[in-house]
């Protein structure tokens, strides 16, 4: 289990990292926490000739509030997300989701940038970022640009990142005070990727759902935004009929592969259940407040 | 441009001692620790980031050293199981707890378990049982069923907090 040979680079600025990526071309990859990339390199599913380690770049660390957005720099680890009071107070669903990722050792290393840029449908952050309508800040040879998470994912391991670009930050609009939220993840054991998972953020007005967004993890080639499912509950009191309509609408867009976590039919079935549970728990949080 | 096979010089601190090494970029930290430094307490169980047998403490974090390149440890402060005993050579509270509470059977997972528990108790000196179980979720044990590992960590926490731990091993 030894990765193929590569040349190691440790730039000290984003500009230098982008320059290196541009010069070295297709065979160069950024290295963030390494907890998706190194396992792939050991299996020789990835054989980059150059690794650009982003750990030397101070600019890529930190969490801050900028107006009505929380800006999380790419190299912020899942452990750091969990330790952040700002995240716990203003984006509690991100805290809840990070706790469901892997195990303590992986969370000390794995970064938010790596998790969202990886393009693996099994990663938990992309579905959440679709739900929260986050924006990704990218920097490349042509300069900077912003891409909505909802426009970013094109296929398994296929994203809007252009060659030579790195993701520098994730910017998340702060959901309104008093919103309800839940991330429901079915997994075979602690530390496993999702068999199926659903993220819900909603607001209520006098007992009925006013706004709602639903995201799905590991139920297709990419994370999905379940727009019809969200529409199915807006204006309802989340009665059983509305929950069922939402689960069915979400199931209609799921297209998971069958794998060790179960055949496609099973994953679609439990995917709908994750949607129902997340909706109920999000609403219960509002009612309890 | 450096070639991929060219070795890179690294300097780090391992168990309080300064260490220099020459490593290929692709050398995994666990291989450097076991083969170059001959510190064979950290084990290789799975090599796929699942079992935690290779867990070490690096810059105040528990990490699986099979999933980090040795070059990335340049400048790091590392503690392995060989550095866990008290300075005078007596067993640390955790080591004593694992012995008293029968926290091991074959012992293969133990170096990783103790190194992980060491960091857990630094971050949370008084963990509840669920917090211990959640905190060691990245370390697999094929023998014990975890009960006595949890007790061993509770024993160590009590000892470090200066209170008596009464529960017996199963
Ligand atoms: C045992 C185990 C269990 C896991 N379970 C889960 C789980 O349940 N849920 C989950 O979501 N994840 C899980 N993971 C994955 C983990 O969260 C990874 O850390 C994460 O997917 C990738 O983050 P990273 O920082 O390690 O990125 P890396 O592995 O370093 O990089 C991943 C990919 O993204 C690219 N990349 C990284 N950063 C950037 C950037 N800033 N700009 C552009 N490209 C970039 C890299 O080039 C690479 O292609 C698990 C991992 C392991 C080993
Ligand atoms: S050998 Fe590193 S996690 Fe198993
Ligand atoms: S004691 Fe044998 S694996 Fe834990």
Explain the overall architecture.
The complex is a heterodimer of chains A (289) and B (170). Chain A has 3 domains: 7-53, Uridine Diphospho-n-acetylenolpyruvylglucosamine Reductase, domain 2; 60-173, Uridine Diphospho-n-acetylenolpyruvylglucosamine Reductase, domain 3; 180-288, CO dehydrogenase flavoprotein, C-terminal domain (Enolase-like, domain 1), CATH 3.30.390.50. Chain A contains 12 helices and 14 strands. Chain A has helices at residues 14-24, 37-42, 78-83, 85-90, 92-99, 104-109, 112-117, 125-132, 149-152, 227-233, 240-253, 264-288; strands at residues 7-9, 28-31, 50-53, 63-66, 69-73, 135-140, 143-148, 153-155, 158-159, 166-173, 180-186, 196-205, 208-217, 224-225. In chain A, the strands form 4 sheets. In chain A, strands 4-5-10-6-7 form a 5-stranded antiparallel sheet. A 4-stranded antiparallel sheet of chain A has the order 11-12-13-14, sandwiched between helices. Chain A is globular and about 60 Å long. The relative contact order of chain A is 0.12. By secondary structure, chain B is α+β, with helices and mostly antiparallel strands. Chain B folds into 2 domains: 8-83, Beta-grasp domain (Ubiquitin-like (UB roll), Roll); 93-160, Orthogonal Bundle (DNA polymerase, domain 1), CATH 1.10.150.120. In chain B, helix 2 packs across helix 5. Chain B starts with 7 loop residues before the first strand and ends in a 10-residue tail after the last helix. The chains are: A alpha+beta (289), B alpha+beta (170). Chain A binds chain B through residues 1-8, 34-35, 38-39, 41-42, 49, 51, 53, 55, 79, 102-106, 108-109, 190-191, and chain B through 1-6, 8, 24-26, 28, 31, 47-50, 52, 55, 61-64, 66-69, 71-72, 116, 120, 134-138. The structure holds flavin-adenine dinucleotide and FE2/S2 (inorganic) cluster (2 copies). One FE2/S2 (inorganic) cluster (FES) binds at residues 104-109, 141-144 of chain B.
